[in-house]
Amino acid sequence: MPPPTPRRSIKWLLQLLLAAVIVTTPAACAPNTPPGINQPSVVNYTYRVINTYPHDPGAFTQGLVYDNGILYESTGLFGHSSLRKVDLVTGQVTQTLTLAPGYFSEGLALWQDSLIQLTWQSNTGFVYQRDNFEVTQSFSYVTEGWGLTHDGSRLIMSDGTATLYFLDPKTFTITGSVSVHDAETPVAQLNELEYVNGRIYANVWQTDRIAVIDPTDGRVTGWIDLTGLLTAELKGNNPVDILNGIAYDAAGDRLFVTGKLWPWLFEIELVSVDHPN
Q: pLDDT per residue over 198-222, tens digit each?
């Protein structure tokens, strides 16, 4: 800008002073927002039981998948690990493949016509034909294997930490990862996974809670509290273990959950604690 003439100098100075006032007024400055004030609130859910189905009390459930009236289940423990096809309504196991004694089965996902199963500490996964459980491929990974699901384009894998990994479903190479957190707190012990309507549902090991996770940033957007789901009456004399196993029927919008050595599998409806109706 050229220097002002003497006749315009006063007007020019007034304009500069006015501009300085506008720039430095509180309305023009960025607001001093307290940390977390704009963070979306976390929704807390309880549940309503819709149906109860028989479940093999000898199944140490690690992974669970639903497709067209059939449950596919991965069961763990060394010497007892298996891949199973289970009738939802009766709980009858209609097909079984037993893994070698050195493998501890973990998460399971149905990808197209293949079932993909993880193992715990063997750094090995297996790919099976869905119809006959024939092994078509094996693959390796460097972490432990815990839960497995997919979002339609990527496999999503947990390893017991607060990190979820995204894998290419053809090459099984890691294409990305996300750290799961509730506000500023990491959420570790992520176990069995299921992808439901754009969110990842994750059992948190040794708890009765399922974390609802935004896969884009790892933020926990909700908590599902399943405390009391398996009552003493339903448990009977069975030596049950922890809650684990989530399956989703996308066509019927049905959510199924169970646990390790549980004699029952539950179809549940989520109920917001803040808005129960």
A: 999 999 999 999 999 999 999 999 9
Question: Do residues 168 and 154 touch, judged by C-beta distance below 8 A?
Answer: yes
Is residue 30 in a domain? no
Contact status, residue 127 vs residue 113, Cβ threshold 8 Å: no
Asked if the structure places residue 277 within a domain, the reply is: no
Whether residue 23 lies inside any domain: the answer is no
3-state class of 86 per DSSP?
strand
Residue 157 falls inside a structural domain? yes
- State the burial class of residue 112 (Cβ atoms within 10 Å of its Cβ: 0-12, 13-18, 19+): exposed
pLDDT 10s digits, 29-55: 333 334 444 567 899 999 999 999 999
Give dist(CA 63, CA 250) in Å, integer.
Answer: 17
Domain that holds residue 201: 44-272
Of 243, 247, 239, nearest to 260 (Cα)? Answer: 243
CA distance 266 to 218: 27
pTM to 2 decimals? 0.85
Q: Of how many residues is the chain composed?
A: 277
Find, among 104, 95, 111, the residue nearest to 75 by Cα: 104
| Domains in the chain, number | 1
> Which distant-in-sequence residues (6+ apart) come within 8 Å of 42 by Cβ?
182, 183, 220, 221, 222, 223
Tell me the C-alpha distance between 192 and 130, whole Å: 20
Q: What CATH number corresponds to the domain at position 136? A: 2.130.10.10
Tell me if 261 sits within 8 A of 58, measured CB to CB: yes
What is the SS3 assignment for 105? Answer: strand
